[in-house]
Amino acid sequence: MASRRMETKPVITCLKTLLIVYSFVFWITGAVLLAVGLWGKFILGPYISLIAENSTNAPYVLIGTGTTIIVFGLFGCFATCRGSPWMLKLYAMFLSLVFLAELVAGISGFVFRHEIKGTFMRTYNEAVQNYNAQDERSIAVDNIQRSLRCCGVLNYTSWFSSVYFPVNGIPPSCCANVSDCTSSDLRNATIAPTKVYQQGCYELVTTFIETNVGIIAGVTFGIAFSQLIGMLLACCLSRFITANQYEMV
User: Fold this and answer.
1) pTM score, two decimals?
2) Burial track 101-114 (b if 16+ CB lie within 10 A, e otherwise)
3) Cα gap 200→235, rounded to integer Å
4) Which terminal residue of the chain has fewer beta carbons within 10 Å of its beta carbon, N or C?
């Protein structure tokens, strides 16, 4: 019995080391999710409102998930150092729930990417039609047009039917060359097309979504399946500790 206990101790020490390292990486993942959620809430809020038909809780979900992972990452380190079998089993159960949630999120994002494109068409068109250069959605439209060098939904003609055009013309954020783009030019339906970007923003944004959704889904699946490693380590460590305690009795 004593010799067998001596054989299991190095295994337990090795598993503890691996699980602590994994828990630390898991904790960092939670911190990243928390940071992305806060960034999405305070920086990307107006942009998200253009993609989501209704107000979205995505930033809050990321903040909540990140905070929970940080707490359980610390719990995992504590359970590992303490060597408590029931704590390790609880940690493994939490990792399995995170695995399922991330798997569902990754599949949903990949499957419903076309619906996101359709929703963006409606919401962005509404933002253009109701543009007033002052509210959050209008400011988001301006930022998108400047950063992507685009104009309107499909092209600059989207602005001709907006409530903003009859009085103010096409917004200055569409100007290809700000130094050669006056307010009178933008109010003139004949001259304005020669002063603004020709490509619409919808195509650029949806191309970006199509290009990167596969990468995002792949990263999500990769993180999700990494939880299996943590589950396996926690379960194995719990088993070895329990067996070692039993042999000592």
Assistant:
1) 0.70
2) ebbebbeeeeeebe
3) 54
4) C
